[in-house]
Design brief:
The protein is α+β, with helices and mostly antiparallel strands. It has four helices and seven strands, in the order H-H-E-E-H-E-E-E-E-E-H. The chain has a four-stranded antiparallel beta sheet with strand order 4-3-6-7. A three-stranded antiparallel beta sheet has the order 1-2-5. Strand 6 and strand 7 form a beta hairpin.
Length: about 140
């Protein structure tokens, strides 16, 4: 609150709020700058969890996320909750939301991701296991 008041009094630009990141135009530069963080792979209890948490967090500007494991054909659709427009946190991930899919242990050697923004723009990123593996 103090930063807000100082910015207003000094005529400085106001800090961006989460509500401002709900369109393709607002989300695209963030996703382009954070490509290495789109997904993560975590070994867990004899299997692996492929996380989409980062993409879920910016889903308001995203129309669809498709992915593939060990293939360049991004045919699997990652289902996302809708944007919670009109709420204080439209990009929030629901408490009961599972932002990962389960894979057999050591299956994923490569993962390809295609993000289709709401304006039709497509962003693609291909990963090797080493690039996304959490330790």
């Amino acid at each position: 609150m103090i930063r807000f008041l100082i910015a207003v009094c000094l005529g400085l630009p106001l800090p961006a709020s989460a509500q401002n990141f709900t369109t393709a135009a607002e989300v695209k530069p963030i996703l382009e700058a954070t490509r290495s963080a789109w997904i993560a792979l975590r070994p867990w209890e004899g299997q692996e969890l492929l996380y989409f948490t980062h993409l879920e967090s910016w889903r308001c500007g995203v129309a669809e996320v498709r992915f593939s494991v060990n293939s360049s054909a991004t045919t699997r659709v990652w289902p996302m909750d809708p944007c919670y427009e009109g709420t204080a946190q439209p990009n929030a991930i629901g408490a009961d939301r599972k932002p990962y899919t389960e894979l057999p242990a050591d299956l994923a050697e490569t993962v390809s991701v295609l993000v289709v923004l709401k304006d039709g723009t497509e962003l693609r990123q291909d990963y090797t296991r080493a690039q996304i593996l959490m330790r």
